Amino acid sequence: MDWWAYENESFSDGWQIICGVDEAGRGCLAGPVYAAAVILPPGVIISGLNDSKKLSAQRREALFDVITQTAVSCAVGTATAREIDDVNILNATFLAMNRAIEALDFTPEVALIDGNRATGVTAVCRCIVGGDGKSASIAAASILAKVSRDRFMRTLALEYPEYLFDVHKGYGTKAHYERLAAHGPSPVHRRSFLKKLFGGGADRRPLD
């Protein structure tokens, strides 16, 4: 498999500065959505690079350091649970992606983005379905986004130990739903994701 096929196509189109972009945590019940943008040196080979979902947590952590040390530039952007509730998860994901792209040391001429649409991304972009398993730049971004978010969720677990955020990272596991049933939503839960559980009581503002 050629991990640089999409990047090389973009180089052939005349673009010089290409970044990969991906998100993590879009389907979670709690915490921010994270996005990362990565500009890799053209043609660089990073051993073991792949879609973050196909890697162990230990492998992702190891690759995080390799990617950050290898990249020409990389950055992470987030959108909070409140922003997700205010503008919906899709628009909040684009918000996080824009923040990551804008935080790069160099303005990319084109962004390769995992998925089938990026209407809210302000950069020139090219969408690649399953891009985190096809493009080196997007795979690198998927790892940075996933590791950064997991680390943040572990810090939230210290503040809200009753929810076990360090275990499920905010995803809708059985243990997470049990904790929600026992304790109700915390200030870092996405109330718009919990309306079926808490109905009209899923408004965020009274608990903030």
List keywords for this structure.
208 residues, alpha/beta, globular, five-stranded mixed sheet, 8 helices
Following the backbone from N to C, one meets helices and strands in this order, namely HEEHEHHEEHHHH
Q: Give the helix tally.
A: 8
Strand order of the largest sheet: 3-2-1-4-5
Distance between the termini: 48 Å
In round numbers, the mean pLDDT is 94
Specify Rg, calculated over alpha carbons: 18 Å
Low-confidence stretches: none
Oligomer: single chain
DSSP strand content = 5-15%
What structural category characterises the helix and strand content? Answer: alpha/beta
Shape: globular
Number of strand elements: 5
Characterization of this structure:
By secondary structure, the protein is α/β, with parallel strands linked by helices. Helices cover 41% and strands 14% of the residues. It contains eight helices and five strands. A five-stranded mixed sheet has the order 3-2-1-4-5. α2 (57-70) packs across α5 (136-159) and α3 crosses α4 (89-102). The chain is globular. The termini are far apart. The model has no long low-confidence stretch (mean pLDDT 94).
In short:
The protein contains eight helices and five strands, in the order αββαβααββαααα.
Ordered list of secondary-structure elements with their pairings:
Blueprint: H1 5-12, E1 18-24, E2 33-39, H2 57-70, E3 73-79, H3 81-87, H4 89-102, E4 110-114, E5 125-128, H5 136-159, H6 165-168, H7 174-183, H8 195-198
Parallel strand pairs: 1-4, 4-5
Antiparallel strand pairs: 1-2, 2-3
Helix pairs in contact: 2-5, 3-4
